[in-house]
Amino acid sequence: MKKVLVMTCMVFGCVFTVSANDGAVVTAKERATHLSNQMIRELQLNNYQSRKVNEINLEVARQMLAIEQEYAGNQQKIDQLCGEVCAMRDVKLENVLSTVQYNDYFGSRKNLVALDKQFMAEATMAQQSGNGLATANTTETTTVN
Predict the structure, then answer these.
(1) Averaged over 97-122, what is the pLDDT?
(2) How many other C-beta atoms lie within 10 A of the C-beta of residue 7?
(3) What is the DSSP string of 96-134?
(4) By residue range, what is the domain housing residue 135?
(5) Which residue among 61, 71, 116, 132 is the one 20 to 30 A from 17 at the CA level?
């Protein structure tokens, strides 16, 4: 029951954080939190693992945002460099997750990457339309799965 309550609070916290931006650019922390929440739920992480995964995802999100800004317009280069950053994340996660959890993570990486891309696309659309609330609503529906 505690897990459900904590996850609900995390989802609403993420939703309100995104809506509070009111069209601002998505930060690395928001991006990392969104992905971490999904991983916490899917992999059933304990508190220590959740904290470490969030730290790792924050570092990765910062690097990915920097790459996306630096190479805007060159999707091939972005994909290559972000793939390298994600490979480094895999190595770090291997030290944090149990063998079973890491195998589950490794099997669902493509889904997590797609979820991250969808989150960023929705945030970008909301920014362009000037409606931060649209991001919050779509974030809520994608994280409730």
Answers:
(1) 92
(2) 15
(3) HS-HHHHHHHHHHHHHHHHHHHHHHHHHHHHHHHT-HHH
(4) 2-143
(5) 71
